[in-house]
Amino acid sequence: MTVEISTPLTEEKVKDLKAGDKVLLSGVLYTSRDAAHKRMVEQLEKGGELPFDVKDSVIYYVGPSPAKEGEIIGSAGPTTSYRMDPYAPYLLDRGLKGMIGKGDRSKDVIESMIKNKAVYFAAVGGAAALLADKIKKVEVIAYDDLGTEAVRKMEVKDLPVVVVIDSEGNNLYETEKNKYKII
């Protein structure tokens, strides 16, 4: 079964998502990778503001390649998420409800997800050109000097993702590995 969800990603929407659910996500997402995450957390620690309202938002861990002529964005596949783990709890505590990437998350991030009722989606690595087709509008909103790692506001339509870790901490990376353990 595939669930269609639009942003904002409210707590009400998050609580119904379970690990293993296939989702077509539409609406506004923000992009950010480790360099931008570091900057955002540094701004918060200095009493500053984030470059976007993180409440009920989704961050896609992506550094898109440059757009070809006539395109709005280049390939836009997910990056490995663990590099954002030192920073994710800061954003989750401020209302972030969803993250999209690939790879497992740390215990601290999962605990923060449970506490803050958030979800982690995986996008399929290696399908960057296909994923880019789901992006309908994009603009750099912060840290332009970071190039592909700048923070972008994107509008997506039916971006295919899978709930890998739900708001209760159920984790496909653990449950699926356990199915194939040799006793």
Automatic annotation (TrEMBL):
SUPFAM superfamilies: FumA C-terminal domain-like (SSF117457). Pfam families: Fumerase_C. It comes from the Bacteria. Keywords: Lyase. It comes from Vallitalea guaymasensis. Belongs to the class-I fumarase family. GO terms for molecular function: hydro-lyase activity. Residues 2-175 form the Fe-S hydro-lyase tartrate dehydratase beta-type catalytic domain. This is Fe-S-containing hydro-lyase. InterPro entries: Fe-S_hydro-lyase_TtdB-typ_cat, Fe-S_hydroAse_TtdB_cat_sf.
